[in-house]
Amino acid sequence: MVFLLVLAIGELTLFLAAAATIGRDRPDVPQLDPHLPTSSYPSGHLAATISLYAGIVLLVVPRTRAWWRWLTLVPAVVMPLLVATSRLYRGEHHPTDLIGSVVMAALWLTATYLAIRPNADLGDNRVATTEAA
Fold this sequence. Notes:
Layout: H1 2-22, H2 44-63, H3 73-89, H4 95-116, H5 120-132
């Protein structure tokens, strides 16, 4: 839970800092969501979606041996695609906003995973099981 919480809080912090610093205007097209409080770059919706679903995959896949663990990859791929498509359709982002969000989420996910090491305990169990055998 700590891993997912740090992912979410860090992603929100990075998004708000980037949006406040860059301040990019929304695309000059009709928008379905009027008067959003943040700027266009980056897409917080997309970065949050990537962080959440990829974080779940990073926790579930190494900890489960059942075949269904691979099903966690489906929403980790489909949900960001749906969110990205909807944000473009609604006129809220430029395509480069979405690319920036993917890069930001990937870097934050990597940094958080390396800092927290949520699966470090799995290595200890595997070594103990091998030594016991």
